[in-house]
Structures are given as C-alpha cells and as structure tokens.
Amino acid sequence: MAKLTAKARKDIKPSKFALKVDGVEKYPVENKGHAKAALSRESEELAKGNLTPEQASKIKHKADAVLGKTDCKYHNCK
C-alpha cells in the first residue's frame, strides 16, 4: 500500500479514523486497505504497550466494520 500523503490524510473525514488521541485522528480506516493496515498496527502497538486495550478494541471494531466483519446496524461503529 502506498504511503498516505499529508494532503490525502487531510482530505479524509474525521469519522473515517478509528481513534482520536489528544485531538489527533489516528488509524485511518476509510477503505479496506487502510482498515487491514490499522489492524496490523493495532496489534503491534498493543504489544508494545503504546495502546490501551480499550483503544485497541475501538480500532479493531471500526476496522472490522469497514472489512464487513461487524454489522454496524447492531453495533456502535462510531
């Protein structure tokens, strides 16, 4: 996957990020490629202790929703 440029990142709606930390949106999940990458990074960062289990769960849930693994009709995907 190509690296997300600053301009492209700025064009992504805030709702298309899985996590907001200190006012900064992180882990873009606007498409399947980025959702898969977010899941990979989530696992790595949780193992390193850079994410809380709650943050990791939120990332996983939003990425799974983009990948079609979660039904947002019955789960809060926001």
Provide a concise account of the structure shown.
With 78 residues, the protein is an alpha+beta fold.
What does it look like?
It is built from three helices and two strands; from the N terminus they run αββαα. The chain is α+β, with helices and mostly antiparallel strands and 78 residues long. It has a domain at 24-69. The longest helix is centred in the middle third of the chain and has 17 residues, at 32-48. The chain is globular. The termini are far apart.
What is the overall pLDDT average?
Answer: 88
The percent of residues in helical segments reads 40-55%
How many individual helices?
3
Largest sheet: 2 strands, antiparallel
Q: pLDDT under 50 segments (min length 5)?
A: none
Strand line-up across the major sheet: 1-2
Give the termini separation: 25 Å
Computed over alpha carbons, the radius of gyration is 12 Å
List the helices and strands and how they pair.
Blueprint: H1 6-10, E1 17-21, E2 24-28, H2 32-48, H3 53-66
Antiparallel strand pairs: 1-2
Keywords:
single chain; 78 residues; alpha+beta; two-stranded antiparallel ribbon; 2 strands
